[in-house]
């Protein structure tokens, strides 16, 4: 999932920009659409950047009644932009059947490319649900559902 739309800087650093009103609305709509799929993450990992943390918190609030989510703020979700293959392998190390990653572009798009070999638009608030297989030699996946609200 890509974080929701962020507000203007107003003198704060990029990493401290929070969600805008539009971003909050995007996340609520994305969560509503995710609930309709019947697919609920059992684990959530978020970039430590404020807009991603706020996105993860809103998703947790919206989905809590459907499935408990363990939120972990991890710098990996932010710092791998130049190494998406390494990020993909690190994400696969988490013991979770249904994991949600809340991060940024271009990392989300690059992860989809690594797993599915598809270039897709990733607007703010979008969710791609990927069914993937991984073994010692390959990682492959297929997009089974996408949600775009932005």
What order do the helices and strands come in, and which of them pair?
Blueprint (H helix, E strand, L loop, with lengths): L20 H17 L5 E4 L3 H14 L6 E4 L2 H4 L4 H9 L6 E4 L4 H10 L10 E8 L4 E9 L3
Parallel strand pairs: 1-2, 1-3
Antiparallel strand pairs: 4-5
Helix pairs in contact: 1-2, 4-5
Describe the structure.
The structure is a single chain. The chain has 150 residues and is an alpha/beta fold. It has one domain: 3-Layer(aba) Sandwich (Rossmann fold), CATH 3.40.50.1240. It has helices at 21-37, 50-63, 76-79, 84-92, 107-116; strands spanning 43-46, 70-73, 99-102, 127-134, 139-147. The strands form two sheets. A three-stranded parallel sheet has the order 2-1-3, covered by helices on one side. A hairpin with a 4-residue loop joins β4 (127-134) and β5 (139-147). α4 crosses α5 (107-116). The longest helix is centred in the N-terminal third of the chain and has 17 residues, at 21-37. The mean pLDDT is 84.
